[in-house]
Design goal:
The protein is of the alpha+beta class. Helices cover about 25% and strands about 30% of the residues. The protein folds into 3 domains: about 190 residues, FAD/NAD(P)-binding domain; about 90 residues, D-Amino Acid Oxidase, Chain A, domain 2; about 80 residues, no CATH class. The longest helix is centred in the C-terminal third of the chain and has 27 residues. It binds flavin-adenine dinucleotide and P-hydroxybenzoic acid. P-hydroxybenzoic acid binds next to loops.
């Protein structure tokens, strides 16, 4: 199998990158070690910053998040029997966060991948990257008795802290910094009304505690526990008693308890590896850095990696396609924006912002970079994609409303005749 981008890991980082690249016509395959059910069974992040939410919208998978996610403008820090509110919105000049579970984010990303026919291979065992320093790195994985090979241009390691990507980098080419804490967070999910409409981070001599939520009927609570504890040491009753003891009396008194529907202990670590690139392998998300969940940052930092990688790959490909004379498929007539050979630099952003007037026609607006129009024909090698440059800034953009493309073949051909 051949693809442009081989993505290792089908967690939020891998799926988000896959979806964004697919929308830009960049071929990719995701290899995930576990089953979809397993990935969706992991309960982790709950707080998304607006940058993450924005990227979900760009990936066209944000409808449910925008409908069901709760906007929070602040949170509380409890200490010495009192709680102080931190006015997130006021202090940051208007920023808020969205409370929406990572499980739901992942579910929405899977739905997005399914809708577009994205390739996510689950239960891919023994994933191994090869020839990462060459122009044509490749991946192998095992499915049953069969070893499958995938040739790629780039490999992106989105396989979390324990994944294979970072481990494939020779020790003398990467530096790791790590601090492992001697405690973890015991988390409980329960179908109960949250004790507070906004999160409460509690400092207490018995240890830290956090009151969070997923919705108005689903609560998420944490207490700090020694790493030597296991989930079996913590009955539901013991958990609720401990949580109450770490909260101000007024909060503890209002706590609604119930049966736990998930209970797990997350070890806490701070970790960063640099550089995040080795040859044609790029690390993203928890594969490259971990922060303890106290700051609710891990997923948001992962999204920031994906944002920069995604734009770098999208910026990179027009030139590559140009060099290779690649042939993206064109299945409908389209309006054409031509960016001729003299145009430099090539578009940095593959977005039509503001909308090109041609959009009003209802036809896809395409941009051809590096091609020339002569006598109504588009000639020369070109990248042709379902996207366009910021047309106002590209002095060399022609058209409006533009010639209508008529391909002489059902899909791509290098010569297009304007139908005007
Ligand atoms: P992961 O989610 O770890 O996904 C990696 C994927 O790669 C997994 O699906 C794994 O199965 C797969 N994989 C691993 N090895 C291989 C292999 N060899 N081959 C193929 N696939 C492989 N962050 C926030 O921003 N806000 C929060 O509120 C927040 N709360 C948190 C609460 C807790 C208790 C914890 C533990 C974390 C929290 N985080 C939070 C952090 C957040 O969950 C992570 O940063 C996030 O999951 C990182 O996503 P990722 O896709 O990079 O890695
Ligand atoms: C969560 O809801 O799981 C959560 C919220 C805030 C954090 C960490 C985890 O800082």
């Amino acid at each position: 199998m051949k693809t442009q981008v081989g993505i290792i890991g089908g967690g939020p980082s891998g799926l988000l990158l896959s979806q964004l690249l697919h929308l830009q016509g960049i071929d990719n395959v995701v290899l995930e070690k576990h089953s979809r059910e397993y990935v969706l069974g992991r309960i982790r992040a709950g707080v998304l910053e607006h940058g993450f939410a924005k990227l979900m919208r760009e990936a066209q998978v944000a409808d449910r998040m925008d409908r069901e996610g709760e906007i929070h403008d602040g949170f509380y820090i409890a200490h010495d029997g009192v709680k102080d509110r931190v006015d997130l919105k006021g202090l940051t000049g208007g920023n808020s966060v969205v409370v929406y579970g990572q499980t739901e984010v992942t579910r929405d990303l899977y739905a997005g991948r399914d809708k577009l026919g994205g390739i996510v291979i689950h239960n891919a065992e023994d994933v191994q990257p090869h020839d990462l320093e060459s122009d044509r790195p490749w991946l192998t994985y095992r499915q049953g008795d069969e070893i499958v090979r995938i040739d790629c241009d780039y490999v992106i390691g989105c396989d979390g802290f324990h994944g294979v990507s970072r481990k494939s980098i020779p020790k003398d080419r990467i530096t790791e910094f790590e601090r492992v804490y001697p405690f973890g967070w015991l988390g409980v999910l329960s179908r109960t009304k949250p004790v507070s409409p906004e999160l409460i981070y509690a400092r207490h001599e018995r240890g830290f505690a956090l009151c969070s939520l997923r919705s108005q009927v689903l609560s998420r609570y944490y207490v700090q526990v020694p790493l030597t504890d296991s989930v079996e040491d913590w009955s539901d009753d013991r958990f609720w008693d401990e949580l109450r003891s770490r909260l101000p009396a007024e909060v503890a008194g209002a706590l609604v308890t119930g049966e736990s529907i998930e209970k797990s202990i997350a070890p806490l670590r701070s970790f960063v590896a640099e550089p995040m690139r080795y040859g044609n392998l790029f690390l993203a998300g928890d594969a490259a850095h971990i922060v303890p969940p106290t700051g609710a940052r891990g997923l948001n930092s992962a999204a920031s990696d994906i944002y920069y990688l995604y734009h770098a790959l999208v910026d990179h490909w027009p030139r590559r396609l140009l060099a290779q004379g690649a042939r993206p498929r064109l299945e409908r007539p389209a309006l054409l924006v031509v960016d001729d050979l003299a145009a430099a630099p090539f578009p940095r952003r593959q977005r039509l912002r503001p909308p090109h007037p041609g959009h009003r026609s209802g036809l896809p607006v395409l941009v051809a970079v590096g091609a020339q129009v002569a006598g109504g024909e588009l000639r020369g090698p070109a990248f042709l994609g379902p996207c366009a440059v910021d047309w106002r800034r590209q002095a060399t953009c022609r058209l409006s409303p533009g010639p209508r493309l008529k391909s002489t073949e059902p899909h791509w051909t290098r010569t297009f005749r304007a139908a005007t």
